[in-house]
């Protein structure tokens, strides 16, 4: 389960990507193969990933230890995997679903499993069209993405029922079944449409999810943000979760003196912008962060910049 700031988060999406893999590979070749796969998938998605602002954690892919005793087995075939805490922005979860569909179309050998804290959440979108045998109790390890479509492995009615599996299948059994009997496991068109409707509009929706706000920031803070726009997520989350100890540490603004402030355009996700703009905070006079009156047209950019810098100082202190 994903964590943030030492706390367990209940809002997460986890995903596993199973490329075609020859188990006779030695450990060194296997490691190289999976690293090359990961690089290829991320390169394919790079154009749409580059502008995205994540709420908490970004989409990422890690390799299992393919040399371990249980990494290459029927129960747990080797794969690339990730887990993203999407926090208050569920659009991050559906953006990841879009990414997974895209790479499954680009690399037709892939079979992908994606779940969240509720389990097989893709099925919720198609609840009105699911076959009677497919429900939360029977869906475990049966639902996957393959070649841009949803697949679900039927429950076997007899030993001779080809392309179906009894009970709760292992992931290894499921992956092999879809590879061998994809025509049997492919879900009907109504289910495909219901799920894909939820990710309609991407990648154009990426730009629609962003908000550009003007802030007065110290030069050093502006430079940090320009170098790494994703820092905005860390800053907003840190400010919204601040405590009195954090704010006490921010009284010494030696890294970001307010007298060096300049106007800058800052890119937020709409969710992050809404979160920080609703926060009310009066800076300590010791900091020297003068803010115009509330009725001034300059209040918002000064106030927004001040909130961001308070947390940048906190982040700088933790990473120094």
Task: Describe the model.
Helix 9 packs parallel to helix 11 and helix 9 crosses helix 12. Mean pLDDT is 87; it is low at 1-8 and 69-74. A four-stranded antiparallel sheet has the order 4-5-3-6. A two-stranded antiparallel ribbon has the order 1-2. The protein has 320 residues and is of the alpha+beta class. It has twelve helices and ten strands. A hairpin with a 2-residue loop joins strand 7 (143-146) and strand 8. The protein has helices at residues 27-49, 91-106, 122-125, 171-180, 182-185, 189-197, 204-208, 219-227, 231-240, 244-249, 270-277, 299-319; strands spanning 3-4, 7-8, 12-18, 62-63, 80-85, 111-116, 143-146, 149-152, 210-218, 261-269.
Helix amount: 25-40%
Termini separation (Å)? Answer: 28 Å
Strand order of the largest sheet: 4-5-3-6
Largest sheet report: 4 strands, antiparallel
Approximate strand percentage: 15-25%
Structural class: alpha+beta
User: How many extended strands?
Assistant: 10
How big is the Rg?
Answer: 24 Å
Anisotropy-based shape: elongated
- Number of helices, where a helix is a run of at least 4 consecutive DSSP H or I residues: 12
What order do the SSEs take from the amino end to the carboxyl end, as H and E?
EEEHEEHEHEEHHHHEHHHEHH
Low-pLDDT segments, ≥5 res: 1-8, 69-74
Instruction: Kindly report the average pLDDT value.
Output: 87
